[in-house]
Amino acid sequence: MSNAVATDDPYRWLEVIAAEHPERLLLETGGGRRLSYGAMAALTGRLAASLAALQVAPGDRVVAQVEKSPEAIALYLACLHLGACFVPLNTAYTFAELEYFLGDAAPTVAVIRPADLEPVQAIAQRCGVTHVATLDEHGGGSLLERAESASPARAPHDPAALAALLYTSGTTGRSKGAMLTRANLGSNATTLAREWRFSSDDVLLHALPIFHVHGLFVAINTVLASGSSMLFLPKFDADETVRLLPRASVMMGVPTFYTRLLQHPGLNRDTARNVRLFVSGSAPLLAETHREFQARTGQAILERYGMSETLMNTSNPYVGERIPGSVGPALPGVEVRIVNPDSGAVLPEADSIGMIEVRGPNVFSGYWRMPEKTAAEFRQDGFFITGDLGKCDARGYVYIVGRGKDLIITGGYNVYPIEVELEIDSLPGVNESAVIGVPHADFGEGVTAVVVPNNDATLDEASIRQALEQRLAKFKLPKRVLFVTELPRNTMGKVQKSALRARYSDLYK
Ligand code: AMP
Fold first, then answer.
1. Which of 56, 81, 152, 307 could cross-link to 51 by cystine, CB 3.0-4.6 Å?
2. Residue 345 — φ and ψ, nearest 5°?
3. Is 314 in the pocket of ligand 1 (CB under 6 A)?
């Protein structure tokens, strides 16, 4: 069957396939609901009409904190239809966190889960957001209730227009909105569809969340770019994945999916027989997991590397050696270099460890309303400073060796320690704290808090965790809270997190 659709605009993919092959299947949900490209285009048109009725104009932001559903995809596509900017939010964010995002993104409309309506209305009012609409996982809620069948005029195609803001956790505690253009999305998915040999025959098993770059742009845009289809599951479940794998030709996952599949007795060569490609990313895949998976299924997982700000940068090859522990060479059109993190000087010798910097059509245009932060993270020649430390071998394969920013990645989600530390430090009886990632068999890393109590205070683990539950999304909550009388520090007074990580390395074993 045909390969990539000959356009590089994410909305045009839908439009072209819906016009040429309206009956072609786009997705089937876990509950057996089937949606064709034509049906998705019609749904997108209706949602675009509802958004237009709520005064959404080109360039306006639309925030969405909603469950995974076909309608949530249509909401993203409706924003593209109108030339508006889609701002997906992790469903685990608390109301306190949502308030920050609504204030920062200043959307025209916030689309939320029906159960959250009352508290969010109050928050929206404080943030000056005029319209709040609801959408549930079955497509119910006020957003579709007011949808009309006639879709409004499509915005003219502007590759430089803002298509999405993806919020990343900030190292200083403030989340930054990475501004991605239509050209960023279009070029990256076109490259991935080509490099990973997607065709309209492919069926992608989709179990990732769709508020994140991986599930939304790597997975869905690549499907749209190739006219393929998805088995669209609400979340990852090992039993369900093993049951459905024989119907899939591609699976994308975070490393936790693969470690969980390996624990499932049903995973074998037979269940994986029709899968031509397993992709992993968002966090490091242990070389051990790669080898075990290959031994069980006969398939070498293809690991790639990217981030919200840059979409995908590198990928192990489809044809050629996939090296366990490496994220592969730079994708075509993307330049990757390793530099001295302090001086910025390029390290030309193979295997030198330094800061990974990238440049290309995939790289975002800056942080939303943060010109100084943007300027600080780009070099004069346009390279973006990723914050990841790594090396590049003589063949161009990139290896990530650490994270310069102390980022914790737990179950594929990013947690910046400072954000959790600030919440802990504000609790009564706490003198100071350090939050670190400690190896965890299931989550990759477990968020772990090391707390110094005030002299006279008696603190306990359960009450600290309970206090944090009101303030932080569940995935950011420390799995363990440990108490010490002082934190290890270097001569400059900086807390030595590496010493703490070493001290507690066996905590979850
Ligand atoms: P996010 O913006 O949430 O996608 O997180 C991006 C960060 O995830 C990157 O800067 C890396 O630190 C990390 N990351 C993504 N893919 C990989 C990978 N394959 N191996 C190691 N770290 C990764």
1. 56
2. -70, 135
3. no
Q: Which segments of 109-180 does DSSP mark as H helices, in order?
A: 117-127, 142-145
pLDDT tens column, 269-326? 999 999 999 999 988 888 888 999 999 999 999 999 999 999 999 999 999 999 999 9
Backbone angles phi, psi at 369, to 5 degrees: 55, 30
Mean pLDDT of the chain: 93
Do 85 and 59 form a contact (C-beta atoms < 8 A)? yes
Decide if 186 contacts 157 (C-beta within 8 A).
no
Q: How far is CA 244 from the centre of its chain?
A: 23
CB 496 within 8 A of CB 435: no
φ, ψ dihedrals at 104, nearest 5°: -75, -45
| Matching residue, tokens 């909401």 | 75
How far does residue 409's CA lie from ligand 1's centre (Å)? 8
Report d(CA 371, CA 427) in Å as an integer.
33
**Model pTM?**
0.86
Look up residue 268 and give its amino acid: N
For residues 402 and 325, what is the distance between their CA atoms, to the nearest angstrom? 12
Residue 76 CA to its chain's centroid (Å): 15
Pocket test for ligand 1, best of 364, 388, 391, 419 (most atoms within 8 A of CB): 388
Residue 420 structure tokens: 């959790």
From CA 108, how far away is CA 102, in angstroms rounded? Answer: 10
Q: What is the 3-state secondary structure (H, E, C) of 318-384?
A: CCCCCCCCCCECECCCCEEEEECCCCCCECCCCCCCEEEEEECCCCCCCECCCHHHHHHHECCCCCE
Pocket test for ligand 1, best of 305, 316, 405 (most atoms within 8 A of CB): 305
The answer to whether the CB of 283 is under 6 A from ligand 1 is: yes
Q: Is the CB of 327 under 6 A from ligand 1?
A: yes
Three-state DSSP class for 274? coil
Which residue's structure tokens are 């489809």? 318
